[in-house]
Amino acid sequence: MLKGKTALVTGSTSGIGLGLARALAAQGANILLNGFGDSQGPSAELASCGVRVAYHGADMSRPAEIEAMMAYAASTFGRVDILVNNAGIQHVSRIEDFPPERWDAVLAINLSSAFHTSRLALPAMRAANWGRIINIASVHGLVASVEKSAYVAAKHGLVGLTKVTALENATTGVTCNAICPGWVLTPLVQKQIDARAAAMGLGNEQAINSLLSEKEPSLQFSTPEELGALAVFLCSSAGNNVRGVAWNMDGGWAAQ
Ligand code: NAD
């Protein structure tokens, strides 16, 4: 379905980003990987789908490196047809204890990077009259939790950016939508499970149960595969007129 298209997935060396890259490659999209983890294993795996795969290690907190990555994407693949803004970090702390440099880092990576990639990808998408921008926000783009001020602010901001991007391109073939996952068991969340286990004197399984039962009524993690299937839908022709949506896949979290 996506043969001949190129997808850039930021933060795709692990977790959700890698799941999204797998789903898009399985539909025939060439992939530009990005992130700080191992790129060789994922590159070889994705290339086995018969697509072209490249990697750029831009730090998404640095606009100059983002510009270099977008130039590399254009020179390697011609243009980015599908932009998935997925790179993200978390910091958990009350506001009065929140280190200002962590606030700046969370905002830069989780929000500002999507502005920079989008502003650089949009001209070629508009010229082709086809493009998909998918912003991986969070249920924390819709509701808040304590001790996540920077993350909640960034993800609410990303949902806002999604709506503006969708509106500015509404008469074109370029769509922009956000996906808002609840809990997904990735390295980012395992750190929070470990912290909970240590703070409450729990084993890993007990800490997982405690985490899920606090917010997620289904008591289940969503998976990178499920999120990948939603991204593929948004890239399909059935998604042509889905614009500015913040689609939660959260086990009922935001329905409460
Ligand atoms: P993860 O830690 O497994 O993956 C994050 C990816 O981002 C990694 O590839 C990492 O190398 C990359 N990254 C981090 N800092 C970077 C930087 N400065 N520059 C470039 N790449 C960088 O986390 P994940 O859980 O897969 O998270 C992916 C996205 O999904 C994030 O935006 C996160 O906020 C969002 N999300 C995750 C969950 C969850 O439960 N896991 C829920 C909702 C939203």
For CATH, the homologous superfamily of the largest domain is named as NAD(P)-binding Rossmann-like Domain
Give the helices and strands as they follow along the chain: EHEHEHEHEHEHHHE
Count of distinct strands: 7
The percent range for strand residues is 5-15%
- Radius of gyration over C-alpha positions, nearest whole angstrom: 18 Å
Unreliable stretches, pLDDT < 50, 5 or more residues? none
Cα end-to-end separation: 36 Å
**CATH-defined topology of the largest domain:** Rossmann fold
What characterizes the major β-sheet?
7 strands, parallel
Q: Which kinds of small molecule does this entry bind, naming each only once?
A: nicotinamide-adenine-dinucleotide
In spatial order, strands of the major sheet run 3-2-1-4-5-6-7
Tally of DSSP helical segments: 8
CATH architecture of the largest domain: 3-Layer(aba) Sandwich
Notable features of this structure?
256 residues, alpha/beta, Rossmann fold, 2 domains, 7-stranded parallel β-sheet, 8 helices, globular, binds nicotinamide-adenine-dinucleotide
Can you walk through the features of this model?
The structure is a single chain. This protein has 256 residues and is of the alpha/beta class. The protein has 2 domains: 6-184 and 223-255, Rossmann fold, CATH 3.40.50; 185-221, no CATH class. Helix content is 48%, strand content 14%. The protein contains 8 helices and 7 strands, in the order E-H-E-H-E-H-E-H-E-H-E-H-H-H-E. A 7-stranded parallel beta sheet has the order 3-2-1-4-5-6-7, with helices on both faces. Helix 4 (100-128) packs parallel to helix 5 (149-168). The longest helix has 29 residues, at 100-128. It is globular and about 55 Å long. The termini are far apart. Residues 11-17, 34-37, 59-61, 86-89, 109-110, 136, 138, 181, 183-184, 186-189 line the site of nicotinamide-adenine-dinucleotide.
